[in-house]
Amino acid sequence: MTEGQPDSCDLLCLDTTVASALRSSMPAAGRTELAAAAAKALGDPTRLAVASALAVAGELCVCDLAWVIGQAQNLVSHHLRYLRAAGLATSRRAGRLAIYALTDRGRTLTQAVLGSEPVAHRAADRL
Prior knowledge:
Elements: H1 16-25, H2 29-41, H3 45-57, E1 59-61, H4 62-69, H5 73-85, E2 89-94, E3 97-102, H6 104-114, H7 119-124
Antiparallel strand pairs: 1-3, 2-3
Helix pairs in contact: 3-4, 3-5, 3-6, 4-5
Pfam family, one: HTH_5
Domain HTH arsR-type: 27-121
InterPro entries: ArsR-like_HTH, HTH_ArsR_DNA-bd_dom, Metal_resp_trans_reg, WH-like_DNA-bd_sf, WH_DNA-bd_sf
């Protein structure tokens, strides 16, 4: 639609064959809610930076992540919990360290949001 035009049809017409087939193939509400939560998790710049760093490094402890993205450790921990709750990250303990990594879904979604190459990936090439 062009600017100034309403975002709705002036005439009600429904291709019932196409619309019915499409409607029956739509994902279940539960599935779309999970997908929306995952997308929302990467909608925050700090969480996206955390996910980008994890996409490159594979695994990082919270203190390393905080230093890499230039944020306080408690803020990074908060965002990591959010990513974990959305199913995009996992955590494990290594002694006194909390180590985080992206899930396969988290890695795929991060790459989709950032484009073909995460920003941190280019930086890792210089290491």
